[in-house]
Design a protein that fits this description.
Layout lengths: L2 H25 L5 E4 L7 H16 L1 H6 L5 H11 L1 H13 L1 E5 L2
Parallel strand pairs: 1-2
Helix pairs in contact: 1-2, 1-5, 2-5
């Protein structure tokens, strides 16, 4: 089974509650933000990949751990290409995050 299929299989149980939490946090004035290293540029791909990694590690942690770090970017791109719901979830979570803040 491919990574995006594991994601789909676990989405309702693991991802939907996670996105509900992120949505509700805004309602209660809890801010979620993305902290960037001072050396990182404001690259949308960096944020997309970080949010995608987070969602994959929540939805299918065992399978994600098996992916070598050198192949993770490629696996994220493949999962995004093959799964509309994965892409939508990444976009939703990115929208719920406050603008990236640089670490000092």
């Amino acid at each position: 089974m491919q990574l995006h299929q594991y994601y789909q299989q676990n989405r309702a149980q693991r991802i939907e509650p996670f996105l509900t939490f992120a949505t509700q946090s805004m309602h209660y004035n809890i801010v979620l933000c993305y902290l960037m290293n001072p050396d990182d540029n404001d690259n949308n791909d960096t944020i997309f990949n970080t949010v995608a990694e987070l969602l994959l590690s929540v939805a299918c942690p065992e399978q994600w751990k098996e992916v070598p770090s050198s192949l993770r970017h490629q696996e994220i791109q493949q999962a995004a290409a093959l799964s509309l719901s994965f892409r939508d979830d990444v976009k939703t979570l990115r929208t719920l995050l406050q603008y990236p803040k640089k670490e000092s």
